[in-house]
Each structure stands twice: as structure tokens, then as C-alpha cells.
Amino acid sequence: MHKTVTLNEESAPAVDLAKCRAILLKYNSATSADLIPVLQQIQDAYGYLPQNTLEEITARTRIPLSKIYGVVTFYSQFSLEPRGKHTIKVCTGTACHIKGAPEIKKKITEVLQVDERQTTQDYKFTYEPVACLGTCFLAPVMMINDRYYGKLTVEKTETILKSY
Ligand code: FES
Questions:
Q1: Residue range 84-129, pLDDT digits in tens
Q2: Residue nearest to atom 3 of ligand 1 (CA)
Q3: Which residues are paired to 148 by β-bridges?
């Protein structure tokens, strides 16, 4: 399923294309087969995929912009908007749901003042619900970056968020 994307000109200004051009130079005659590695490297370089980098890919390859957007919106690893320094993934799977994930999600929204799939105004956190983190024995569980936090309570969640 395609993720929903909102392009916001104010929050996603044009960026300096030097890093993007250096990446594209490595793919002299880039084809559609190169698109995913090119996008991954550009996202690594900028932290997300600024709109003008996608236009630059089109200008320097024969890959149509519509095809690039198709790939970017299909894969959840890609982001068209600046992301927070830390990514919070909260499990919404059955085990976590039963053990209190809805209250944990409510607490995150309250503390960070963001809804699901949003980034805090200070770009500190991006908040994403996920289907199952594969650690159901820790339910309810969330991850911040690569670290798991299990057997969460509302109080514990608030303390963890404030420790970042
Ligand atoms: S249901 Fe939450 S980790 Fe599996």
C-alpha cells in the first residue's frame, strides 16, 4: 500500500545540490535499476529526499519524475520531508494493543505534541506507528532509533521521552 505524502513547500525548501550531483556522477548513465541505491544515498546525504534533488535526478537521467515519486511513495524507508533526529516506532500489533499500546500512543502525542507520522517542530523526533516490532514478549514496546523499550507504562514512556 502507498503511504500518504503531503508536500509542504515551507517545511521542505530547496537544498544545495552539490551532494546530490556528486552521487549522480557515480551513476553516469543511471537507469531505473539504479534508482533505489541513488535515492538511498541522497536520503543518507540530506536526511530525506528534498524535492529539488528528485528533479535533479530526472534532469540527469532519463527516469521520469512520476516514476521517481512512484518509488519514493511505495517504500516506507524514503521520506519527502525532513525527519526528526530520533525516530520513535510504537508497536500497534495485537499483543501490544492488548497490553496498553493505545495509552502509550496517547502519552507520546501529549508529550511531544505530534500525531502519528509527524515530526516535532524542533525536528527532534519523528513518530511512527508500526505493525509489530517482533518482540511481542516485551509488549507494549517502542523503539527509539535502534533501541527497544519494553513493558512500557505511561509513566515510563514519559520518562524515556524526556531523557532524549
Ligand atoms: S505485537 Fe508488539 S512487538 Fe509484536
A1: 999 999 999 999 999 999 999 999 999 999 999 899 999 999 999 9
A2: 136
A3: 143
Among 7, 57, 17, 55, residue whose Cα is nearest residue 37: 57
The finding on whether 160 has its CB within 6 A of some atom of ligand 1 is no
pLDDT for the residue 137: 97
Q: Is the CB of 90 under 6 A from ligand 1?
A: no
pLDDT tens-digit profile of 37-55?
Answer: 999 999 989 989 999 999 9
Burial class (CB in 10 A: 0-12, 13-18, 19+), 38: buried
Nearest CA to ligand 1 atom 1: 93
**Is residue 136 lining ligand 1, measured as CB closer than 6 Å?**
yes
- Indicate which atom in ligand 1 lies nearest the CA of residue 95: 1
pLDDT of residue 156: 98
The rounded distance, in Å, linking the Cα atoms of 66 and 62 is 12
Q: How far is CA 91 from CA 85, 115, 133, 156, 159, in A?
A: 20, 15, 6, 16, 18
| Domains of the chain and CATH, by start | 18-74 (no CATH), 86-162 (3.40.30.10)
Partners of 86 in beta bridges: 125
